[in-house]
Amino acid sequence: TLKKHSINYISSLTPYSNKSVRNLLQSIELDLNIFFGLPPIFEGNVLSITSILPSPSRFKEELINRSLTYKAIISIIFYPKKTLEDLAKENFTSISTALRTLLPLKEYFKELNIQFSITNLSLLGDERIIRISLSQILWLISHGNNLPSQFERDSLYEEYQLYKRNFFKDSLTFPISEQVDLLLTVFYFRTSHNFFITEEMPPIFNEW
Length: 208
Fold this sequence. Notes:
- By secondary structure, this protein is mainly alpha-helical.
- It is 56% helix and 9% strand.
- The strands form two sheets. A three-stranded antiparallel sheet has the order 1-3-2. Strands 4-5 form a two-stranded antiparallel sheet.
- The longest helix is centred in the first third of the chain and has 19 residues, at 18-36.
- The chain is elongated, with a radius of gyration of 21 Å.
């Protein structure tokens, strides 16, 4: 199915000017090309919409996955030695811009009584809350899909696999099983990077 709409028509559906709408659509066009390899959606002043466009939820997910906030969360879990300066360089942005972008995340952790050092991309506080909050953020953003995989086949890895086998009973169905798997993944990497729980935990988590 091919749909064509003029910029004037699209602008009439919004409170914005033709120029603002066109700039926004051109930005989306660029994202569609970078994220999904799609061809241009503009023909002169006409927007051509085809059925191959990704769903709004898929497009939103891709935008989030490429955001500095999401990449900061990934760094905290998987690359704890990475700093704000490293993150800024990797994403071709200034340190000041990266810092401002991560301020809302700092406020989020503050509400959980967790100290977030933006400069060091590190968390300090109740390790139980840190692990649960990190897993919940990842679940809400991507359901834990497309995460880095750096498991080392050591004794901790074997314990991780044992816990997974113990959790994944027939009674655990999607999405519960996927959420448990994500939580254990966060547990594994936090422990492997020497972040330990000193607070009291249920017996099943004592080894983590």
